[in-house]
Every structure is written in structure tokens, then in C-alpha cells.
Amino acid sequence: MTGNGLQELPRRREPDLAGLAAITLDAAGRVVSWSVSATAMFGPEAHTVVGRDVCDVLMTGPGHRELIGWALSEVAAGRTHTATVAGGSLGEGRFALRWEPLAGPGGAVLMIAARAWPQPAPSWLSEATSKIGSSLDLAQTASEVAEAAVPGFADAAVIYAAERLLAADEPASPHIGEGAAVRRLAARMAGQDRAFTRSVLPAGEVLYLGADSPRSQAMSGGNPVLSSQLDRETFERLARHPSGLQAVQRYVSFLAMPLIARGVIVGCATFGRTPAGPAFNPSDIAVASELASRAAVCIDNARLYARQRRTALALQRGLLPGRPRVPDGLEVAPVYQPVGDNVVGGDWHDIVALPDGRAVLIVGDAMGHGPEAAAVMVQLRTAAHTLAGLEPAPEKVLQRLDTIAAGMDAVAGEMAAAPYATCIYAVIDPSGGTGEIARAGHPPPVLVAPDGGTEVLDVPAGLPLGLGAGSFESVRFSLPPGAVLALYTDGLVESRSRPIDDGMAALSQALSAALGEPGGALDAACEKVTQTLREQGEDDITLMLARVRP
């Protein structure tokens, strides 16, 4: 029993770590234990505070009693609660507090305190900003900004981006006019679990901010805006949520910061504080400005990356072949893997179904990588697809492609001379189990027998397209049911660390292993072979497998 008749609750021994103070409370908020580090941080000795209400000892500022009541109710429900507080006996410094339940009778509560602010500005900002921009994912970047601000700087943070920059990719302008559409990217509320925060302030929601909104004013003027209450539009929207208004009514000080990157306003960040912490002031604005500056650049980088990614994916959908129409008597499985970060490159493949049940298979490789090679590739692929529909012999198609490539202008940046490419062109007749094939400087085809044995077909090499040689030769071959024809690009068999002869041997071995079981899925075999042979990723890889159905 303590001197005032309170029963002493079981005490949990906590290490007195520098910068952390451990205090034990009972279910009513009275101090049960007071660590040495609590004395070092706050001043009073343990014997002067044990048994007293923590709101009379430590939490004596405006809103502190309500905060303690909220925290104790959360702990009683088995949840932890966090907040950042200041004022009263805490002084002007801000402290991060955490309450969590302790095992034992009486519903004891462990309260951990750590100084959150002020800290030496470079150290605090360095730690906060180091958490921002770890990826180029827009949602993750915005979440990192909110995490850096809560609870050390604010009790709540919401990050917005200008919708016109995300949805329409409109040209950026230095300022935004009065009223603006924004997309909420992330939100954090100290003491609230993330599921509740997501339900009240969902990421991805598009809002129109009226001209009287502090967020709109911050974005239109490019300056921070302080306010002491929610704007009408936000109040009305949150009032429609069952618990939304109750949650946000806890905040009494707001700071809206424009997010400015490269001289352009890309969004805004709103910070909120409860009565337990001091209202935002000019010194807070200086800190928020540095945080917002870092956040804006990282968010804009993520936005630009997302735009470039969408552009690349759109190009990929346009440049790569769609779902081909394959004749009933034939199975075809292609795989394409661009090198590095490129979405498209110089490799291409195509399947053209002919009216009599035959099919044209084409694999090509334009010199180089990335968009320059893709520009050449798309022209040659389109020409080859068109020529295939006219049904000329394989050598005739290569002759015409050679003429087209020789007439192309050099692509600025990567190619100093007229572009060239290699190509292999095959016509398959499933009903007859035969094929006709020609190549232009391309690696030779490999035939895999139903029992897994392999043979490199002897097809005259020819010269690459674009040299104007115009001399190619077709070869007829047998493709019985169950046999597989493999067409590929040199990225699969050649690299700086592997001569092409070694690569060809490895390809034959990988094809034999992947297709050793008769009737196995071609898609799985295609993936297995490319994964087995891909080494340093020095060049684009294309592999196409074709099999006549039994």
C-alpha cells in the first residue's frame, strides 16, 4: 500500500535509456512508478509524484486531461496510443508519448516519453528527410512524408498532389489558380490506427478545393497558410463519415504548406495539432518549409517517373504484337525480355496467320537498345507483317526488308550510320508438317525432336538488313507433329563472357531439358529456357517456340 492508501501495482523494470522516460500509471491515470530517467527529463523525484494524477504532475496544459482520458480508454481496450504533446509543466518542448497496456491486475499502463522537439534542426531534418524518397512509387513517397511528420512535428499530416498533373499531365505552371482539384496521396493521424485513417481520409480520393480553403490558398499563393479551424468544405465532408468529424475535431491548429518542386507547385501538405501541443508558429513554418521542399522534389520525381512509365507502357502496347491468331494446327509461345530498364528495345517477334492454315513466324533484332532501336524495330516489324500477308517467299520478304532498312535515316543519338537489323523469317505448314525459312545475319534456328534431341538447321546466314546486299536464300525443312522449332535473338546465346558457340551449346541443352517431356506446355518451356540462359542482361532477349499439334 502507498501512503495515500492506493494498492501498489506490479512494477515492470524498464531500462533507463538515454532520451526515454518510463512511467507506470494505474487505470485511473495515477502514477505508480517514476523512473530515474523521468526525473532526469522532467525534474520531480519519484517520492513526490507516486500516487498523484499524472495530469496534476506532468500533463497540466490545455487539452492534456482529455488526451490522457483518451489514451487510457484506448489502453483499456487493449490498444496502444501515441501522441505528441507540449505546454503546461512540459514547457515549450514537444514530447512524443506512448501508452501501452501492462500485464497484471488493475489495468496498469506503461507510459513512455521521448523528447521530440526541439532537437538540433539539422539532425531532426536529416532523420526525417532520409525516410523520404526511398522509391519512385508515388503513394509510398507520400506515405514517407506523412510518416516523417507524425508524431514528431505534428499530430496529423495529409499529403495532396495537383490532380491536373497526375490525370491529364497538363503542362506545369508556377502557380495554381483559385480553387483546385487535388488527389489525396497519404494521411497519418497520431493515435489512430491506419485502417481508421484510411476510412476517413482515403488515399486516391480526388477533391475540389474551394477558393476559401487554406490548402487552395497555399497552392494558389505559393505560401504557407495558418488556420485554427477546418474549412467548411472539409467539415461537411467529414461530417458524413460516422466517426470522421469526432476524430478531426481534436485538432485546433493547422498549417497548409505548398509543395514546390523546380519552381512549380505540385501539391500541398496539411499538418494538424491538438490542444495538447502548441499552435503552429513561424519557427514551425521554417521547419515545415524544409520538410516540404524535400517532399515536393521526391513527390515530383515519383510523379514524373509514373508519367514516363505510363508512356513506356503505352508504347509497349503499341510496339509489341498483340494476341496473335494462330492456326489450329500450330502451337506458338513467345517470350520477350528487354535489357535493363527499357520497356521496349530492338527485338521483335510476330505471327501472321495465312488463309490456308499456314503461319508466318518472324523474329528480328534491330541494332542497339531502348527507344532508338525501337524506332527502327517498329518500322521493320510493320513492313514484315504487311509483306507476310502478301505471301511472297521468305527470301523475297527479306530482300524487301533489306531495301527498306537501307533507306532509313540514322537515328540521332545512338546510330551514326543507317540502321541495320537481323531477321529470321519462316513459313510453317502444319498440315504438311513442313516449313520454309530464310535468315538475314540472324542466329540459326534450332529444331527439337519429340524425344528432346536437338539439331541446328543449316540455313544460309545472309547479311543483316540495311546493308543493301539483297541476296538471301530459303531452305525447306520438316517439322513433324511434336517437334519444336526455336527462333531467337543473339541476346539469348551471346554475351561478353560467353562466346556464341558456347551459347548455342547451352541453348540446345536447355531446349532439350525443357522439352524432353512430349506434349509439355510451350509457355513454361519458353520461360524456363530464357531464365536458364539469361546471364548479365547485356542485350534484349526474344525466344519463340512453335510446335505442330499431333
Fold and architecture overview:
With 550 residues, the chain is of the alpha+beta class. The protein folds into three domains: 20-117, PAS domain (Beta-Lactamase, 2-Layer Sandwich), CATH 3.30.450; 121-311, 2-Layer Sandwich (Beta-Lactamase); 324-548, PPM-type phosphatase domain (Phosphatase 2c, domain 1). It is built from 16 helices and 21 strands. Strand 1 and strand 2 form a beta hairpin. Mean pLDDT is 81; it is low at 1-18, 171-175 and 411-417.
Summarize the structure.
The protein is of the alpha+beta class and 550 residues long. It has helices at 36-42, 46-49, 54-57, 64-76, 121-130, 138-149, 163-167, 194-200, 214-221, 232-239, 244-248, 282-319, 370-389, 394-406, 500-514, 522-533, and strands at residues 20-25, 31-34, 81-85, 94-101, 109-117, 156-162, 180-189, 206-209, 225-227, 253-261, 264-273, 330-337, 347-353, 359-366, 421-429, 434-440, 446-448, 454-456, 475-478, 484-488, 541-548.
